Amino acid sequence: MTVPDATPDAAPAPAPAPDSASTSTSALDRGVLVIGQIARDLVLRVEDWPSAGGSARAVERREMLGGKGANQAVALRQLGAPVILLGVAGTDAAGEAVLAQARADHLDLSVVVRRGVTALLMDIVDGEGTRRLVEHVSEQSLLTVEDVRGAATAADRVDTVCLQLQQPVPVLLAGAELAMDRGLRLVLDGAVEDEARDRLVAAADVVRMDAAETRLMTGLEVTDHASGRRAARHLLEVGAGLVALSVPDGDLVAWPGGEELVPHGTEQVIDPTGAGDAFLAGLVIGLRRGESPERAAHRASAAATATVQRLGGRPDLRDQRPTDR
After folding, report:
1. Which of 83, 155, 217, 309 has the most CB atoms within 10 Å of its CB?
2. Domain coordinates in residue numbering, the chain
3. 3-class DSSP assignment, residue 149
4. How far apart are CA 202 and CA 183, in angstroms?
């Protein structure tokens, strides 16, 4: 497999070495552990969808490091956080290629697991920004409890754990335990259809969901700001510290003391893929810096807006990286 985008748009400053003494000097010198999917992304842009039995010409094609875990890790790194990525890459050529790109992105891959075939995500986007996703994600490309427990030493070098909820439930509980045992900020992204969902939400400092994920997690249909507020309040009552939900008119961020609705931008949406991952990264960066929830919400929205103007889920947030400490 060739990865045309394997050379990053520009290299941010390398993350501190895992044994760097600077990791204990301040919160911002510590890193973020992202637990989630690593995949090969194949992105095709077509002008129109083919009819049944027909075909359509792809006017643009990109192959790159992808998966929600990797996309979040890249976004966080571009915004200045040292990032350790825990996920599974295959032992095939695709796995070698995506990890080469991850290294070029200055991600710490010391706990990445290698086995099986690399997950494949094929993202097809039409001229109006509507997308369809075809996935090949084998059992071997999912994390195991043993994989998470093997990353315990990595958790000692971070202040935040971002947990992507597309992993098996026992893995999610192990990841949450990893964070809770160390008093780390726990960030959940996505949804899980299991009785463990309330346990996970109650343990979380931050929860982010789109409308479909909110319905799965709360049973509530988010059709407007008011219904989004009800869903957010439900999650806060379960125990979440802060909730970020996608609502029809923007992104709603709510916490026990208030809320902030950030309207969607007016920029053209080329591809919505990766918007949620970029939003999460911006939100985490803001909260790690001690920003107010309102300020962090606007930082997150700016990251998402920049990402939907690009084809594929890979972000380019270098110009949004905070320059002050």
Report:
1. 83
2. 27-49+66-320
3. helix
4. 14
Residue 244 CA to residue 205 CA, distance in Å, equals 11
Query: 11 to each of 74, 93, 145, 317, how far by Cα in Å?
Result: 11, 24, 33, 12
The helix/strand/coil state of 283 is helix
pTM of the model: 0.88
| Cα–Cα dist 268/307, whole Å | 11
User: Domain 27-49+66-320 - what CATH class?
Assistant: alpha beta
CA 74 – CA 173 distance, rounded (Å): 24
Q: At what angle do helices 93-104 and 68-78 cross, to 10 degrees?
A: 20
Q: Which stretches of 82-157 are assigned E, i.e. beta strand? A: 83-86, 88-89, 113-114, 119-125, 131-136
Q: Which residues of 85-111 are buried (b: 16+ CB within 10 A; e: fewer)?
A: bbbbbbeeebbebbbebbeebbbbbeb
**Per-residue pLDDT reduced to its tens digit, 177-230:** 999 999 999 999 999 988 899 999 999 999 999 999 999 999 999 999 999 999
